[in-house]
Amino acid sequence: MTVDYLPLASGNVRNFSISSEIIGNLSMKNIVNPETNSENGMPYAIATLDGTLMLVKDEEIIWSVQVDQQLFALSKMDITGDGNDKLIICSWEGHTYILDQNQHIVRFQTEEPVSGFCAGNYWLGPQNTAVPCLIYVTFTKKILVYYDVNFTDITVKNLLQLIQEDPESNVSELFHEKTANYDKKEIRKFIRWCCYGNHNLRSELNC
C-alpha cells in the first residue's frame, strides 16, 4: 500500500506542529466542488487542534470554520434522519459542535473538561435498538453518556418560515384576518399576546 501526501491550500494544515483529526466516507448530498462545479468524489472533514474545521472534496476546501477552542475529536452521525452525516467535534473544554454540510451549527458544553469523546449509534441494553449517543470521558474519571440524541433540524428558523413550510397550516390566513385593521403598535401587541398573553382573556384584544 502506498500513501500519497496531498497538501491543502491551508497554512494550518501545513503546520506540522498542529495535530489534526480526519474523517472520511461522509454521506452528504449535493456537495459541489467550487473549483470544478462537480458533485463527484467523496467529501471528508479535517479538525485541527488550533480550532479549525474544514470540509474537503477532491482536495479542495469547500468551507472552513474557526472556533476559539482546541478541537481534539471528530465524529460523524446522521442525527436528523435526513440521510446526511453531521460532523460532531469536541474540544478539551467540553464544547461540542454539531455542523451540517451548510455550516449550520449547534453548540453545547458538558459539565467539565473531557479527555475523550466519541459519537455513534449504540445499544444501551439487550432489549434496545441502536440510538444516537454522545459519549464523554472526563479528567475526573467519569463517563458521561448522552443517549437517544435526535434533532428534527439544526437550522434556525423563525415562526413565519415554519408556517410557510406547513402547507396545511392556516395560521398565516388567521393572522392577516385578525390584524387587517391593526396599526403597527396593535400588531406588536397581538404578537405579544400570542406568545405571552393569557389566552383565556380574549377581551385584551377584543377578539
From TrEMBL:
Classification via InterPro entries: KICSTOR_ITFG2
UniProt cross-references to Pfam families, sorted A to Z: Itfg2 (PF15907)
GO BP, sorted A to Z: regulation of TOR signaling
Designated name of the protein: Uncharacterized protein
Organism: Parthenolecanium corni
Organismal lineage: Eukaryota, Metazoa, Ecdysozoa, Arthropoda, Hexapoda
